[in-house]
Amino acid sequence: MIGIMQVRLSGFGGQGVVLAGLLLGQAGVFDGKYISGSNSYGAQARGSGCKSEVVFSDSPVDFPHLTTADILIAMSQGAYDIYCTDVREESGLILYDQAVVTPREGLTVKHIDLPVTEVSVRRLKSKQAANIVYLGALIESTRIVTTGSIRKAITMHVGERFRSLNLKALRAGMDLGRKVHG
Amino acid sequence: MARALAKYIRPGVKDTPFCPGCGHGILMGLILRAIDDLKMDMKRMLFVSGIGCAAWIPSPHYNGDTLHTLHGRALAFATGAKLFNPDLCVMVVSGDGDLSSIGGNHLIHAARRNIDLKVICANNMIYGMTGGQVASTTPRGSKTSTTGEGNPYHPFDLCKLVEGAGATYVARFSVTQPVSLIQSIKKMLLHKGFSFIEVLSPCPTQFGRRNRLDRPDEMVKDLIRRCILEEEAEGLTEEQRAEKIITGEFLS
Amino acid sequence: MPSRWAKSPFPKGRYYFSGNEAAAEGAIAAGCRFYSGYPITPSSELMERMAVRLRKVGGIFIQMEDEIASICAVLGASWAGAKAMTATSGPGFSLMQEGIGYAAFTETPCVIVDVQRAGPCTGQATKVGSGDILQARYGSHGDYQVIALSPWSSQEMYDLTLRAFNLSEQYRVPVMVMADEAVGHLRETIEVAPRIEVWDRKKEKGAAPFDIEGQDSVPPMPSFGEGERLSVTGSTHDGYGFRKTDDPEIQARLVGRINRKILDHKRSIIETESHFMEEAEIAVIAYGFTARTGLFVVNRLRKEGKNVGMLRLKTLWPFPDEAVAEAGRKVKKIMVPEMNLGQVAGEVKKYVPCDVISLSQTNGEVIGPEKILETLKKI
Ligand SMILES: Cc1ncc(C[n+]2csc(CCOP(=O)(O)OP(=O)(O)O)c2C)c(N)n1
Ligand code: SF4
Ligand SMILES: [Mg+2]
C-alpha cells in the first residue's frame, strides 16, 4: 500500500460499525501507519447512516476526514444508498452482502458480494459478529492491515466475554475473502 | 481571655470589620474558644468562606490558612482542598445567604457526600453586606429592603435541610448561648463527616432597624427570649411555639 | 529549578487515542492529580478517562453537582497543592467564568479544556463549532489575562494539554485548551516521548505569595497545610493576601501585574507555525481543526504553483500579534476560515494593513477543503 487509503464502514446503529472502525484503525497503528479515524456520534450513531471512517497513510495525515472512499463496506441498504456514489471510480471497492443490499446499476466501482449474513448465522450462530466478518474479508482481500495486528487490536478493545466470538468471526471473514479472491 | 486567644489571630490584623452589636463578632471569638479548648493545630486548619459579612469571620483574621472565595461557592472550594489534602482540618464559615441561597445546591450536595467538612452558617436571616435584602432564611412577615410589606415566603429550616440531605452532625445555637455553642463546635471539630451548625447571629444594622429592634441589645434580648431547647418547647401551644426558635443538637 | 525532566507515565511508542483521551493522558503526564467535572457532550470522554486514570495513579476524581462547583473544587485543590483540571463545553464554560476570573486574580494555576460545540446556548450538542474563542479571553469581568491554546490533532490534545499545565504552573494563570468537537473525537496515531519536561510552581518559604516587590513577575506559591498561614482572597489584596478594597494604588498595581506578567512573557508563551509563507501573496490564518483543512488546501494550491501560505495559531491568547503583523506585511490578502462569525478574523484585522477576508461557517459542520478552495480561488 502506498500513499493514502480511505476506508468507510457503514450500516445502521447497533451493527458494530464504530467498533469495526476502531479495530481497523488500531491495527493500522500497530502496523506503523499514521491513522486518522472518525465516526458518527450521538444521535447519528443510532440512525441508518452510521459510519466509521479510517484514513491510512505512510506519513502524518494532513486532512483527517475522509474525502473520497477507496473502500466502502455497506452493511445496510440505507447506508449503501447514501455512500455508494462517494467511492473512487475505477480503483474503488465496495463490499456488501446480496442478502441485505441490492447494488445500484451503472456504477463503475468494483463490487464484492460476500454472504456475510449467512456465514454469521450458520458458522457463528450470531448476527452480532457480522462487522468482524466484514473486517476479516476486507483484510484478506486487500491486506490493508496484517492479521497479527488485527488480532492484537481485538484483544485490546474487545471485552473477554466476546473476544473468542470476534476472533472466530475474523477467521470466518478471512475464509470468505480468500474464496472470493481465489 | 482576649489575651489567650491572641495567638489565633493573624499578625497584622487590627480590629474586626463588623458593626457594633453584630453577632458575627461574637461568633468569631466563640469559634476560637472551641479551637483553643481542643488545642487544635492552626497550621493544619483551613478556613474557607464565601462572600458577605459572615465570610469575613475567618478571613483574614484567623491565623491558619484562610480561603475567601466567591459568593456561594465556599463548599465547592473546600471540597477540592479537603479531597486533595485529607490531613487538613477544613472549616467553612459563611453566611445564610451565601451557603443556602446562591450556594444552596452545593450545600445539599456536600451534605450528601458526607465529606469531612465542618460548616458553620452564621444566620442573620438577611443579606447583611449588600444592604438588608430578603434571604432564603428571612422569617415570613419580616421587613427587608426588598420586602417592605413583609416577606411573603417561608424560610428554610436549614438544619432539617442538611439533615435530609445526609449531614451527620447537625445543630442550631444562638450566639446568645455561648457555652452550648462552644460545646457544639468542639463536637463538630471531633466529628468525622459533614457537620453543620446553624448559628443565629443578630444583624442590628440591616435586620434589627427594619423590624422594631432598633438597638443591638434589643436584638440580643429578643434572641435570648426566643431561643429555647427542644425539651423546653414541649407543652407549648402551636402559637407559642411558632415565635420561638428551637435550638440544640438534632443529629450527633 | 524551574523545570525538570520526568519519565512519561506511558512507555514510549505510538498509540491510537481520540483527542479527548489524549488530552487526559497529557494531563496525567504533566502531573495532574485532581479532576472535578460535570458531564457535557462532546467533552465527557475526557472526564471518563480521568476517572479511570486518576484512580490508577493515586489522584483524586470527583464528579461535582455542576460546572460552577467543578471549577471551584479545582481551585480549592490547586491551593491544596494539586495540579488540577476540568473539562467542559460551551454551556459549562459559561458557568465557569466567575471561577476563571477568581483564578486569574488570585493567580491560581488550573487547566480547563473546552471541547467547543455549536452554540449559542444548548445549540447542537454533538456538532462542532469554535464560538468560544472570545469568551475564553473576555468571559469573566474585569481586566485580566489567560493563556489559550488551540490543538489541531489528537497528538496536540496530548502535547498542548501537557503544555497547558506547564504554562499554568509557570505563570500561575488559568490556561485553556480550546479544543473542538472534531478534534476531541478524532482518533489518531499519537507518539509519546519517553521523557517529558515538567514545570512545577515555584515555592519559597516566608515569601509574599501575591507580589514581588518592584517586579512584574510571578510570585512563589505555597500550599495550604505547609505552615505558611496563607490568606487567599478574590478581593483586591496586598502581597500577603490582606484585603485592600479601598486602596487605589494596590488595585492598580495588582491589576497591572496580573496582566503584565503574561504580556511581558508573550514571546515565550506564543507558538505559531508558518507554512509556505516565503513568497506567499495570500495567507490563510487558521487554528484548531480548521487549520488541518487550511493546510490541506494550501498544499494542493502550492502544487499548482499558486503563491499561497498559511500561518497556524497554536496559541490564541495572548494573541500572536507579532506573527500576524509579520504575515500581514508579506502578503496582499489574508483569509481567516473559522467556525464562528469571525472572532479571530476581527483580531487579525487589528494588526495588519492588508485586506482580511473572514470565511465563517456556523452550521455545526467542519469547514471542508472545497469551501476554502473556492474562497481562495475567488480572491
Ligand atoms: C455572584 C454574586 N452575586 C451577588 C453578590 C453580592 N453579594 C455580596 S454579599 C451578598 C449577601 C451575603 O449575605 P450572607 O451570606 O447572608 O452574609 P451576611 O452579609 O448577611 O453576613 C451578596 C448578595 C456577589 N458578591 N456575587
Ligand atoms: S451589616 Fe449586619 S451582618 Fe454585616 S457587619 Fe453589620 S451588623 Fe453585622
Ligand atoms: Mg446573612
Report on this model:
The complex is a heterotrimer of chains A (182), B (252) and C (379). By secondary structure, chain A is of the alpha/beta class. Chain A has a single domain, classed as Pyruvate-ferredoxin Oxidoreductase, domain 3, CATH 3.40.920.10. Chain A contains six helices and six strands; from the N terminus they run βαβββαββαααα. Chain A has helices spanning 17-30, 77-83, 116-124, 130-142, 147-157, 160-181; strands at 4-11, 34-39, 50-57, 71-74, 93-96, 110-113. Chain A starts with a strand and ends with a helix. The model of chain A has no long low-confidence stretch (mean pLDDT 94). Chain B has 252 residues and is of the alpha/beta class. Chain B has a single domain (19-251), classed as Rossmann fold, CATH 3.40.50.970. The longest helix of chain B is centred in the N-terminal third of the chain and has 15 residues, at 23-37. Chain C has 379 residues and is of the alpha/beta class. In chain C, helix 1 (19-30) packs parallel to helix 7, helix 3 (67-79) packs parallel to helix 5 (97-106) and helix 11 packs across helix 14. Chain C starts with a strand and ends with a helix. Chains in contact: A-C, B-C. The complex binds thiamine diphosphate (TPP), iron/sulfur cluster and magnesium ion. Iron/sulfur cluster is lined by residues 18-19, 22, 24, 53, 124, 128-129, 203-206 of chain B.
List keywords for this structure.
heterotrimer, B: 252 residues, alpha/beta, Rossmann fold, eight-stranded mixed β-sheet, globular, C: 379 residues, 2 domains, five-stranded mixed β-sheet, 14 helices, 18 strands, 39% helix, binds thiamine diphosphate, binds iron/sulfur cluster, binds magnesium ion
Average per-residue pLDDT of chain B, rounded, comes to: 96
The total tally of domains of chain C equals 2
Q: What is the string of helix and strand elements of chain B? A: HHEEHEHHEHEHEHEHHE
Radius of gyration of chain C: 21 Å
Explain the layout of strands and helices.
The complex is a heterotrimer of chains A (182), B (252) and C (379).
Chain A: E1 4-11, H1 17-30, E2 34-39, E3 50-57, E4 71-74, H2 77-83, E5 93-96, E6 110-113, H3 116-124, H4 130-142, H5 147-157, H6 160-181
Parallel strand pairs in A: 1-4, 4-5, 5-6
Antiparallel strand pairs in A: 1-3, 2-3
Helix pairs in contact in A: 1-5, 3-6, 4-6
Chain B: H1 2-5, H2 23-37, E1 45-49, E2 65-68, H3 74-84, E3 89-95, H4 96-102, H5 104-113, E4 118-123, H6 158-165, E5 169-174, H7 178-190, E6 195-200, H8 216-226, E7 227-229, H9 230-233, H10 238-242, E8 245-251
Helix pairs in contact in B: 2-7, 4-5, 5-6
Chain C: E1 3-7, E2 13-18, H1 19-30, E3 34-37, H2 44-57, E4 60-63, H3 67-79, E5 84-88, H4 90-95, H5 97-106, E6 110-118, E7 124-128, H6 133-138, E8 147-149, H7 154-171, E9 174-180, H8 181-185, E10 187-192, E11 195-199, E12 231-233, H9 248-263, H10 266-269, E13 272-275, E14 282-286, H11 288-303, E15 308-313, E16 315-317, H12 321-330, E17 333-338, H13 343-349, E18 355-360, H14 369-378
Parallel strand pairs in C: 3-4, 3-5, 5-6, 6-9, 8-9, 14-15, 14-17, 17-18
Antiparallel strand pairs in C: 1-11, 2-10, 6-7, 8-16, 13-15
The structure holds thiamine diphosphate, iron/sulfur cluster and magnesium ion.
Residues 51-54, 71, 95-98, 122, 124, 126-130, 135 of chain B line the site of thiamine diphosphate.
